[in-house]
Design brief:
Strand content: 15-25%
Number of helices: 11
Order of helices and strands: EEHEHEHEHHHEEHHEHEHH
Number of strands: 9
Radius of gyration: 18 Å
Helix content: 25-40%
Oligomer: single chain
Structural class: alpha/beta
Length: 270
């Protein structure tokens, strides 16, 4: 493990580089992986070439020794400089944890970001979220993987602590089968001990991002509150906020058609 994986972030690409008019980068949330945005990326093709990133300690990307938003943003920056943004800035979409990484990326590396889309998170302490995430992480860690013979066994083991089918199935995407049995891809232990850092937002030294920003909130979520607007605008003066009323925190999966519509409108007119 290393503190700062520079070129080891796993990425996948959706779209045709020959026909795409623009590029867009997706950063997932806690417990997620780049492929969570597969449907959205496909809906944006062929006009957009999408890069789906596995953030550190998630998916197929390297584990680290600490959780630090500045390090994660710098890691994404190195990946973009070597590829998607090698010829100029690109649009960046970040949800939840990935939204905070995206914001820090824009503040620390503004030359890489043409437009920023922040999905259902704010540059503040995520009040009350730590308890929910702690429960989910503890529930995953408590599963005795040595007794799991098939994915349905893990699903059954999680039904009592996580009774919500959609949440449980989302989390089970992180279960991988290998020659030695089943394992969890995310670094559960580090994520569990780092919830304070995950819930917070780092000092970015007074930097601001002067390019267009779309702030997308879920109408049935409490992560984007009215009192956060002043903080958001102080860092991102050109912020435009849209609320998708029918969605909760996982906006892109709960209201994908509306999310794509909002995203396209911003990308085409900003």
């Amino acid at each position: 493990m290393s503190d700062l994986p520079v070129s080891t972030l796993h990425t996948s690409r959706i779209g045709n580089v020959e026909t795409a008019e623009d590029s867009i980068v997706f950063l997932h949330g806690l417990f997620g992986r780049g492929k969570n945005f597969t449907r959205i990326a496909k809906d944006l093709a062929p006009e957009y070439l999408s890069l789906l990133v596995d953030l550190p300690n998630h998916g197929e990307s390297e584990w680290t020794d600490v959780v630090d938003y500045r390090q994660m943003a710098d890691s994404v920056a190195a990946t973009l400089r070597a590829g998607a943004a090698a010829e100029g800035p690109v649009a960046v979409v970040g949800h939840s944890l990935g939204g905070k990484v995206a914001m820090v990326l824009a503040l620390r590396h503004p030359d890489l970001v043409s437009r920023l889309i922040v999905v259902d998170i704010a540059p503040t302490q995520a009040g009350g979220a730590e308890g929910e995430f702690a429960h989910l992480l503890d529930s995953l860690a408590a599963v005795d993987l040595s007794g799991i013979e098939r994915r349905s066994d893990a699903d059954e083991a999680l039904k009592d602590p996580i009774p919500w089918d959609t949440t449980r199935l989302f989390l089970l995407q992180n279960l991988r089968s290998g020659p030695d049995g089943y394992t969890w891809e995310p670094n559960l232990e580090l994520l569990r001990t780092s919830l304070d850092a995950i819930g917070g937002f780092p000092d970015t030294g007074g930097a601001t991002f002067e390019r267009p920003v779309l702030w997308v909130a879920g109408g049935r979520s409490d992560y984007v509150r009215d009192e956060y607007t002043a903080t958001m605008r102080a860092l991102f003066p050109k912020t435009h906020k849209v609320t998708i009323r029918e969605a909760g925190h996982w906006v892109h999966s709960q209201a994908p058609e509306k999310f794509v519509e909002v995203l396209r409108g911003f990308l085409e007119h900003s």
